[in-house]
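Subject: Protein entry, chain in single-letter code together with its fold tokens

Category: Structural biology, sequence-to-fold work with a learned token vocabulary.

Notation: Tokens come from a learned vocabulary of local backbone shapes, not from coordinates.

Start of record: The labelled sequence and token lines come straight after this line.
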Amino acid sequence: MYRVFESLDALVTVVEEARGVPMTSNCVVSRGDVLDLLDDVREALPGELDDAQDVLDRRDELVDDAIQEAEQTRTSAKQDSEELLARARDEAQRLVADARAEAEQTVAQARHEAERAVADGRAQYAELTDRARAEAERLAQAGRAAHDRYVLDGQHEQARLVSQSEVVQAAHAEAARVVDAGNAESERLRRECDGYVDAKLAEFEDTLSKALGTVSRGRSQLWRGGAQNGVPASASVRGGTGTGMDLID
């Protein structure tokens, strides 16, 4: 087809450059050049026309091939999309399973930590109570022993002074002083014992409050984790009060 266009362009150029006939619109051209160009056009046209006819003859075939290829492409795309969707669904299920397993593990760890904290609190309570009771008993026994000793010393001093007639009144006064001193010392020891027991009980109260705070925070985290997984917080621990005292009871 390019050859045809080239020949036609050359023919136009020959006509345009031809020498004109005076007083007319005619021109004088070279017959041989024009015939050669026309021969080139004649030779080039059949091949191009045949090619064009071939394209027309294969039009339906090309359209059918294009339709089949489009159908194959659509089918392949549909299969790929279904496969990708299935993979995405499997991946989502796996992620959900992993998240559920991790949540269950976290809840179990929190429950174990709460139980351990409660057990430690009970052990500390028992230990501090036993120590406070033993210390109180020791101080009470020491106070009673000192009281008895002071009273006995006063009685002995009173008897010794009474046996001396010239210092009877002084003996009575000294005996009374010794007895009063024994009573005062006994009262002081009793107050010290009460103060020691109160201090120990205050330490135990502080330790127990911290343990209960740890238990309460653990249970709060457990409830929040249950609510995020679609489980009501009230169902995570049956009968829970939120203070931690139900775990200790």
Remarks:
- Confidence is low (pLDDT under 50) at residues 231-249.
- The chain is about 85% helix and 0% strand.
- Strands lie at 19-20, 27-28.
